[in-house]
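> call design_seq(struct)
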């Protein structure tokens, strides 16, 4: 087991280095001069432009900028934002709780609903219910996030009285002590603020969780169909065990193993989908922060945010991989 863990950790190192190189290269390929975007073209003399380039370190050759970037990473310094000169790490962890809150509830409802729908579709595999669930999950997987978000804002938000922007309705004001709005509103003395925070979460979490819902549903259905065809399931049926007990206790427990693996991949889907979702719903998280950084060519923010998100995804997938090795010992020898 120890060798299995060391092997998986060592495999992460080249992935991490490749991410730093690819991120750095792609960020610097974005057209536009960050100095001109920040200051405006009018009245910006060549001397002032050169001086500001030197202050930001953009006058150095690209390979020197890259090695400076790598050096900063190992020192725990991802640089300062071009826009407000705030440390990238500080800004990231100030905004990250909003994204975590949104992603957590999107994953929670999609995981619960996806497993339920997947089990129903597998148990009733020849019925119209199974075909309907499969069709809806395929549709959900194919829907663009921005289109689905706009549809909900236009046709669901107003009739149901659900907020279409922000983390809290405008009539409430709560100090953000923890960064997690549900916790802060629960602890506050503002009547109705907690319910307002829940309502604000509904639409963006539905949008963000739709694609994961489709993936989990299809994976659960496929895994359940495979498990339900095993000999021990047929033996359980022959012994006269209750159908519900067979499905939940004997079949679902083994069918969830590949679903757990998929959840690790879904974390990346949630964080990438948050970029669009947060901009559609004006959700003040890292997704909106990244889009603002792209518009202003804020290289340190883009490099730092992508690197941190990639690291989180790597750690989550590594953890899932290790847990999968614990659950299934045969994986340790691969």
């Amino acid at each position: 087991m120890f060798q299995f863990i060391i092997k998986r950790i060592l495999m992460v190192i080249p992935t991490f280095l490749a991410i730093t190189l690819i991120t750095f290269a792609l960020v610097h390929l974005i057209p536009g001069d960050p100095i001109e975007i920040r200051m405006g073209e009018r009245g910006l003399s060549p001397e002032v432009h050169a001086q500001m380039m030197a202050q930001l370190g953009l006058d150095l050759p690209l390979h020197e900028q890259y090695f400076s970037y790598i050096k900063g990473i190992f020192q725990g310094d991802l640089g300062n934002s071009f826009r407000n000169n705030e440390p990238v790490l500080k800004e990231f962890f100030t905004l990250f709780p909003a994204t975590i809150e949104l992603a957590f509830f999107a994953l929670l409802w999609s995981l619960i609903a996806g497993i339920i729908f997947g089990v129903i579709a597998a148990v009733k595999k020849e019925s119209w219910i199974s075909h309907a669930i499969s069709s809806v999950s395929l549709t959900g997987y194919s829907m663009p996030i921005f289109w689905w978000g706009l549809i909900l804002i236009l046709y669901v938000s107003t009739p149901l009285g659900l907020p279409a922007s922000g983390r809290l309705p405008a009539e409430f004001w709560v100090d953000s002590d923890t960064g997690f709005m549900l916790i802060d509103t629960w602890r506050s003395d503002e009547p109705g603020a907690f319910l307002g925070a829940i309502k604000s979460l509904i639409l963006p979490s539905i949008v963000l969780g739709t694609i994961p819902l489709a993936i989990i549903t299809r994976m659960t259905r496929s895994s359940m169909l495979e498990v339900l065809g095993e000999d021990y399931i047929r033996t359980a049926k022959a012994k006269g065990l209750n159908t519900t007990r067979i499905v939940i206790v004997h079949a679902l427990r083994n069918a969830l193993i590949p679903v757990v693996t998929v959840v690790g991949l879904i974390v990346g889907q949630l964080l990438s989908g948050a970029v669009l979702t947060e901009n559609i719903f004006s959700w003040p998280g890292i997704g909106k922060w990244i889009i603002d950084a792209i518009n202003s060519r804020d290289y340190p923010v883009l490099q730092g945010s992508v690197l941190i998100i990639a690291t989180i995804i790597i750690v989550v997938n590594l953890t899932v991989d290790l847990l999968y090795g614990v659950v299934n010992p045969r994986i340790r020898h691969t």
